[in-house]
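I had to read the description of the data format several times before I understood it. The format is easy to grasp once an entry is in front of the reader. For illustration, here is how one protein appears when written out as sequence plus structure tokens:
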Amino acid sequence: MEERVISQAVISRLPRYFRYLGELKDQGVERISSQDLSKLMKVTASQIRQDFNNFGGFGQQGYGYNVEYLYAEIAKILGLNQSHHLVLIGCGNLGQALVNYLNFERRGFVFCGLFDQNPDLWGMKIRDLEVKPMEQLEEFVRGNNIDIAVLTIPKDSAVKVAEVLVSAGIKAIWNFAHVDLNVPASIPVENVHLTDSVLKLSYKLKSMNDKDA
């Protein structure tokens, strides 16, 4: 049977579903209809049903969705039923903030190694992990079953570091460097361009101000 291709738009909504369902579960809500979920998420009920139908549906007509079950199923779809080992490259303020964000570990994203090219940072500990020189990165990735590399480094360094990671067998890259990485298609890359995000916000703010003028 040919595997169904899931659109990027659907994939981008899955974390939101997971987050809202988690909040409902914590509130003790046992079931919810697509209509009620649509009001919370500002997504049409039809869109919600279409999205879930990509993965088998999950709901029952006249009943809606069992919140705990749906939460668990989306967790599986997102790969959260297993842990992921991460390395951080770039231990500046942003990198340290990511390592210290405990919610990642609660979701199964565990930082195992920290690396930086600045000798002044070598030996510094962040949550009991010691910052190591970049020269040790490739061997560490090869020997510790690392799934995801997190890049919080300048764009001039990111391309070369990505080449080292690919050579070491990295499985995925979470890229905060403001550069598009040229890696094999088999290695997924999620780009987080913070400047792009704030520029979008600036545009929205300007548009609102223009309407009020």
Notes: The beta strands are 31-32, 65-66, 84-89, 109-116, 125-126, 129-133, 148-151, 172-175, 189-191. Residues 8-77 form a domain with the Arc Repressor Mutant, subunit A fold (CATH 1.10.10.10). The CA atoms of residues 143 and 168 lie 9 Å apart.
